[in-house]
Amino acid sequence: MATDPVCFMIVDEDTAQFRSTYRDTEYYFCCNYCKKQFDENPKRYSRLANDMTVDLGSGC
């Protein structure tokens, strides 16, 4: 699973319809709007994505 770097939604890499590559890293998006936002400013959103970690195994 990946995190959309624009809206932070969890996205399945295997079924994601929207993708972009920036600096040899592939990013996955929940919709075309998020992909367009990323493509307009990839440096900003790639930094956010690198700063995030998601642990789906832990509870509240």
Task: Describe what this molecule looks like in 3D.
With 60 residues, the chain is an alpha+beta fold. The protein is 32% helix and 23% strand. The protein has two helices and four strands, in the order E-E-E-E-H-H. The strands form two sheets. It has a two-stranded antiparallel ribbon. Strands 3-4 form a two-stranded antiparallel sheet. The radius of gyration is 11 Å and the shape is globular.
Layout of helices and strands, plus pairs?
Elements: E1 2-3, E2 10-11, E3 18-22, E4 25-29, H1 32-40, H2 42-51
Antiparallel strand pairs: 1-2, 3-4
Helix pairs in contact: 1-2
Strand order, biggest sheet? 1-2
Tertiary shape: globular
Give the total of beta strands: 4
Beta fraction: 15-25%
Order of helices and strands: EEEEHH
| Assembly state | single chain
Class inferred from helices and paired strands:
alpha+beta
Q: What is the helix fraction of residues, given as a range?
A: 25-40%
Low-confidence regions: none
Distance between the termini: 20 Å
For the report, how would you describe the main beta sheet? 2 strands, antiparallel
Instruction: Output the number of helix runs.
Output: 2
Overall pLDDT level: 86
> Rounded to an integer, what's the Rg over CA atoms?
11 Å
